[in-house]
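Protocol step 4 of 6: structure prediction from sequence.
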Amino acid sequence: MTQSERASTPRIGGVIETALYVDDLARSQAFYQDLLGFTVAMAPIDRMVVLNITDDQVLLLFKKGASREATVLPFGTIPPTDGAGRLHVAFGVTPSDIDAWERRLSDAGVDVESRIDWPEGGCSLYFRDPDGHAIELKTSNWSGRPFLNPGS
């Protein structure tokens, strides 16, 4: 891609949705609500739970295998999706809260699998959700700039 083509590419504003595929929707919903404080964005349905991460971001929890077919709605069709294996998602937390998060995880009986202090700056806590997905709480972006904007 040339510099001219890159300059004319419309800009992406962020990740609005991310999805994990789980065995038990109720168990996963409780985990993310109770541990991380996410709230329900939409009434759960048989194949999916939608949780608010921030005002503009949601976590979609899909029942494994339940979305392998397209979902046809009166206003459009959602393509099929599914996932398997141990997936990964990272959530930004402020640097001043990382120790409080580590205590919260410990108090909830969640093992921190790894704590990394990144050479470029920032810290990450890695732990597993009930389906074995690698969940990360990270205090910086990839270049080490601190995450300072919770809830946006």
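Step 5 (inspection) to follow. The domain at 86-152 is CATH 3.10.180.10 (2,3-Dihydroxybiphenyl 1,2-Dioxygenase; domain 1).
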